[in-house]
Amino acid sequence: MSWVAGAERYYADFEPVIETLASHGLSLHRADPSTTVDFITDEVLSHRLWHVCDEAGVTIRHVSGSPVATEANDFMTVIASETGDVVFMTPNLLYQAAAFEPMIKWTLINRAQSPGIDDGDMFLCNDPWVGAVHQNDVAVFAPVFHGGKLFCWVGASIHEVDVGGPAPGSFSITARDVFEEVPPLPPVKIVKNFEIQSDIEDLYTRRSRQPLLLSLDLRAQIAANNVARSRILEAIAKYGADTVKAVMGRVMDRAEAQLRARLRELPDGVWRHVDFQETAFAGDRGIYAGRLELTKAGDHLHFDFTGSAAQVGLINSATSGTRAGVLAGILPLLVGDIPWALGGLQRCIEITNPRGTMLNAEYPAAVSMGSITGTWLAHNCAHAALSKMMLCHPEHGRRALSGGGGSWPAMQLFGWDKTGYAFVTQFQEANLAGFGARSFADGVNTAGAYCIPSARIPNVEATEFTWPLLVLCRGEAIDTGGAGKWRGGAGGKFSFVLHKTNRNFTHVSAAFHVAVPNGGALSGGLPGASVVYSMQRDSDVLARLAQGQIPQEIASLSGTLDILPPKSQTEQGRDDVYAITFFGGGGYGDPLDREPESVLHDVAEGFVSRTEAARLYGVVIEGGAVDRAATQARRTLIRADRLGGKVPAARRDTPAAVPEGGIGLNDYTMLASRRLTCRCCGQDHGPASENYKLALVMRTTPIADLSPTMADPADFIDEPVEFRSFICPGCGTQVETEVALAREAPLWDVQLVH
């Protein structure tokens, strides 16, 4: 069956395919190489086409009935070339943009002869081995014809709340293979000659617990594609097909050229990162590593995931999902000010991703959670490695971000309202994760996820109006942002009870970074807190509400606290309170370098407790003010303790400047004359040819000690995991940190070519 392995190759050279298409009667419109476009027309038309793409996205929000699209912007619209290269995309769920190219190319190869590709057609696909990130991300894409030739493609995808399968929300937490999940659909013709094919629609919606919502979203996608198609044809009528096509090509060429120029400014080298997923399926107690080695040479990036864990359980993605995670890592971080024309940007990128791993799972692996597992893991690794690379340049280092929003904490809810109507929803409050800190500023509190730049959450009133529940609390959680010179953004908290329903709710919860935190903190910062799923069972919440009280913390309630595992399905009764604390962003820099007044402000605003202010930041607060002398003494004591009681060497007030010809790895380490040294005290950290971490003092800390909200990994996994701090042996500065398997050697993060 050709479609099983159809998307496992990247079609870099499509010319032989084009000859085959012609034999099937399908002609592609190719740009006339002699077409010239003046600067003004180029600017006006490129912006016009971008707005066409955006208008398609607005159409989805206007037509869709799903809060996933209307509130959280978990959708994507694109305009792609005649061969599927993405030229324009909206700033919504970035993973979904990368899925269109392999899906369109697959369709050209496998559908041109039968059932054919004609004007007025649209294809529907949610097959991860063709290009979809996972089965819930359903794409509808349409060819745009002009003069009898296929001119380009337009596409719209939405994360659907439920597309079938054994579990509400289609996340099958017990699945061992795809046959225990919702079956994926390879590209099928859902629209023919501008008419919906009712038999295919019935096949698609029949499997869902929310068929009416699925049908409405299908029409939102069709409407978006129709809007984009008509606007593109209007542009062709005004400017001519060759001019429009030439501008599309120039947008991709410009993006490529600008990215190559940026890469040439950065030093050559290798940057590594390891991130983890735990609990491959409900009841599993394993932990699984995703490993990335990023090599930058000249104007080229090579992402190598060799060594990642074998495919297992349901935490896998097909290779299309890993590619989507890498591209989503690049977009806001490295090319935020460059057009997001994936068709051009990806010419600078190579990905090595061995088959049979959880980042390139072979059919029939379980992949229904791919978007929040394997794909998200690949994104975390790419984001962290790119940030480490960017820190090695004084200007681009200001774009670097510590890790944040370690995965998407899925909260699928199934139940009945007071009328007996059954519903399924996915809470968008997962967008309450904190952003990581930067090299010059704190992370943004409850900012969302890096892969959804336009992420939002619904109003509480809208949630309560739509579903039979009562929200008790939604706000920022204390001690969740990773400590550092610059603090990671605080994560959020969210709790609710049943309301106006007499039947229990069924919860399906699924995430990773529950047992272990996001390991993407930078330059000696601490990772943000992990996610915590919990249920306060048999509480007195109803009595408290009857008294006019609205409990803000479940700890204040009677009953039994039930901490839910990373993958779980459970019931919520009338006296139960569901609560979740979301990820905080990673910190940047040694926490002892944070301005004491900033810590005081954090305490006053409820982001940091007094206990953690003293323990992690060494800041002593008395009577609402910083005790400067006590703070200085405590910080000196902490640095000495890091060195085993040794008196730390004197530190510079400002890190030493990097000499000409040298490279700063971060705020504390620089490479000059082939050796690494501390920028705070001048301590030698060894030759550039060796892992500099081995020259530092390594201290290990239990994961649970990083934050009062952090779980003990041993509650969920069997493999020992530890948090490591790497300390300058001279001045006691915390230079680097990592989360690692206890049995593994320190990771060689940065290996520069110098």
In short:
The protein has 15 helices and 30 strands. It is α+β, with helices and mostly antiparallel strands. The protein has a 7-stranded antiparallel sheet with strand order 2-1-5-4-3-6-7, with helices on both faces. Strands 11-10-9-8-30 form a 5-stranded mixed sheet.
Can you give a write-up of this model?
With 754 residues, the protein is α+β, with helices and mostly antiparallel strands. It folds into three domains: 39-257, no CATH class; 258-581, no CATH class; 628-752, no CATH class. The protein has a seven-stranded antiparallel beta sheet, with helices on both faces. A five-stranded mixed beta sheet has the order 11-10-9-8-30. The protein has a five-stranded antiparallel beta sheet with strand order 14-15-20-17-18, covered by helices on one side. The protein starts with 14 loop residues before the first helix and ends with a strand. This is N-methylhydantoinase B. Residues 38-591 form the Hydantoinase B/oxoprolinase domain.
Question: What descriptive keywords fit this protein?
Answer:
disordered N terminus, 3 domains, five-stranded mixed sheet, globular, seven-stranded antiparallel sheet, single chain, 30 strands, 754 residues, Hydantoinase_B, EC 3.5.2.14, alpha+beta
